[in-house]
Amino acid sequence: MNNLLADADICVKCGLCLPHCPTYTQTQNENESPRGRIALIQAWAGRHLDTSKKLIEHIDNCLLCRSCERVCPAVVPYGRLINNFREQIREERDATLSVSLLKTVSHNKTAARLAQSGLRLYQTTRLQKMARSLNLPGLLRLDKIDRLLPDYHEPTALAPHYPATTEVRGNVGLFIGCMGALLDHQTVNAAIKVLTAAGFNVSVPERQGCCGALALHDGDKATYDRLAATNCSAFADNNLDAIVTIASGCGSEMQAYQQAEFAEKVMDISQFLIKSGGNLSEQLLPLTASVCLHTPCSLKNVMREEQGALKLLQQIPAMKISPLPATVQCCGSAGSYMLDHPQMADALLDELLTAALTPPPEYLLSSNIGCALHISAGFRKRGITLEVLHPITLIARQLK
After folding, report:
1. Are 395 and 312 in contact (CB under 8 A)?
2. In this structure, are 166 and 123 located in the same domain?
3. Do the strands 387-389 and 170-175 form a parallel or antiparallel pair, or are they unpaired?
4. What is the pTM (predicted TM-score) of this model?
5. What is the residue-wise DSSP string for 24-76?
6. pLDDT, tens digit, 9 for 90 and up, residues 158-216
7. Number of structural domains, the chain?
8. What is the domain range of residue 129?
9. Which terminal residue of the chain, N or C, has fewer Cβ atoms less than 10 Å from its own Cβ?
10. DSSP 8-state class, residue 299
C-alpha cells in the first residue's frame, strides 16, 4: 500500500496525459484516463474506496501503452503503479479462458509443444474450416484466439549457435520469446539471417522462455520473477555484446528486469543493427513497393527506440516508406488485452486500419508479434489481403 501511495502521490493531476490516452480519447471518461486511474488507486490504497468490480474494470481497461509516461512532466511510474495494483487485487480479478490458455502455452514448454502439434493438425487439415463453419471456436469461447492465428508454417529446428557469414563484428544472443517460437518462425529465421549477414555470431539458448509480461500484467509477480530468472540464466554469457529481441513487447519488459547485467544488454533488433554501425545497403536488392510502418507502443513509449526500424528500412533502395500518422494511437493489441477487451481493441484497430489503407500499401510492417497478429486479423475481417511483416523479415528477403 505504501508503494502504491508513494507512486500515486507523484501525480500532480495536471491532465497533460489525457489527449495521449487511447481509452480516454475513445470514451471521454475521466475514470478511463491515466489521471483518473491514478486517483482511483490512490483512494483505494488510502482506504477511502472499497475493492469493487467497477474499480477493477476501470484499471483493467488500461492498455498499458504508457503514452502517458512519455509526456508526464512529473515522471509518474504509471506502468509500475498499474502492475503493483493488479498484484494487490489479483484474487479479485476473473481470468478468462482465452488468457488462461495463452498463459499456459506461454509459460510451459511442454504445453507449447502440444500447442504446436495441435496447430499443425488444426490448420493443415480441414479441421479449422469445419470448426469455423460450425462456430465451434465461438461455442468454446476461443473465437478471439482463433481469429488471430496466422497461416501455419512448419517450424525449423533451431541450432544453439549460428556463425557470422561475413567478417565477425561481435556476438549476440537472440531472444525469440514464447510467441515467436510458436507463431512467428519466419521472423526468427529472418533475424538469424540478417544478424549473421551483418557480421554477428548468433546464440539462441534453448533454455530461454517467455519474457514474463503476460504474468506481470496479470498481477502474477511470482511467475514473472521465475521467468525472468530463467532468461537471465539462459543468457548468462559474458561474451554476448547484446541480447537482441524481435518483439518490442518482450524487449520493453526485459529492459526492466532487476538483473541489471542482463537488462542493460537488451535491444530491439532494428535499433541494434543501426547502433552497431552495420550498413546493409550494399547487400540489399531494390524493392519498388510502398510500405506502411507501424511503431508499437512498447517500442515508442518504453524502449524509446522507434527510429531504428525506419533507418534500417531506408537502406532498401527504391522503397517508399510511410509511417502511420501521429494521430493514430495504440493498435489495441496490448498483449492479452485484445482477448479480454475486444470492443475497445477493435475500435482502436479500426482507426489504425483506416489510416494504413490511405492509400493502401503493399506491406504493413510492425516490430511486435502481438500487434502484427491483431492487425492481420483486422485486414482479414475487412476482406483485405495485405501482408503484415516484421521489418527484419523484409530486410532478409532483400538480401542478395
Report:
1. yes
2. no
3. unpaired
4. 0.94
5. HHHH--GGGSHHHHHHHHHHHHTTSS---HHHHHHHHT-----HHHHH-TT--
6. 999 999 999 999 999 999 988 888 889 999 999 999 999 999 999 999 999 999 999 99
7. 4
8. 97-146
9. C
10. I
